Amino acid sequence: MFRAVSLAPEAPLADWLALLDAALKRSATLFDDRAVILDVAGLKPAPSELETLIAELSARKLRILGIEGAEAPLPSLLPPRLVGGRPVGDAFEAPAFEEDKPGVSSLTIEGSVRSGQSIVHREGDVTVMGSVSSGAEVLAGGSIHVYGALRGRAIAGAARNPRARIYCRKFEPELLGIDRLVRTAEDMGTHLRGQAVQIWSDGGAIKIAALG
């Protein structure tokens, strides 16, 4: 098991790269030590365009683990083509097996999650009694509850659970993720900043609403 961030570029690509640059300017460590899955299903680039995009991302020090949504074959120098997060092709085929699923549990953090800390709990919900600082990360297989401010990164539903939610008392995140959907601070607007909110997935998009 490993953590990866999914990026889904959109046309026009120059505008999307400008948004990415703005996110990196706001949080220079946003993708530090993060593997990235590039989802180009909505972009449908030609092989030459895909090579250019990979070069642009590499110049920004993003590590591309693999490419989803691309049509085969890909140029040999590009990262591998993925389907459902797994490499495809004869070199990667292996016998099928059944995986034992761990029992669901919950994890409670009595204090705050400080900058640079990473809390990973794939078996269930995570509750943080304090705050999640900027530069910190919480990743849960289930839902995430933050009773203080959420200023860092929060990724819920990491165990392929699109029904997972994120709750926080003060909404100031750097990045949000549910299942394989991700939104950065620049995509969230400012109208709910500082409020108590809930975040969930609906129809392939991340929704955010104030807690009444």
Automatic annotation (TrEMBL):
Keywords: Cell cycle, Cell division, Septation
Family per record: Belongs to the MinC family.
Name listed for the protein in its UniProt record: Probable septum site-determining protein MinC
Domain Septum formation inhibitor MinC C-terminal intervals: 109-208
Subunit structure: Interacts with MinD and FtsZ.
Organism domain of life: Bacteria
Organism from which the protein derives: Methylorubrum aminovorans
A Pfam family annotated for this UniProt entry: MinC_C
Biological role: Cell division inhibitor that blocks the formation of polar Z ring septums. Rapidly oscillates between the poles of the cell to destabilize FtsZ filaments that have formed before they mature into polar Z rings. Prevents FtsZ polymerization.
Entry-linked PANTHER family: SEPTUM SITE-DETERMINING PROTEIN MINC (PTHR34108:SF1)
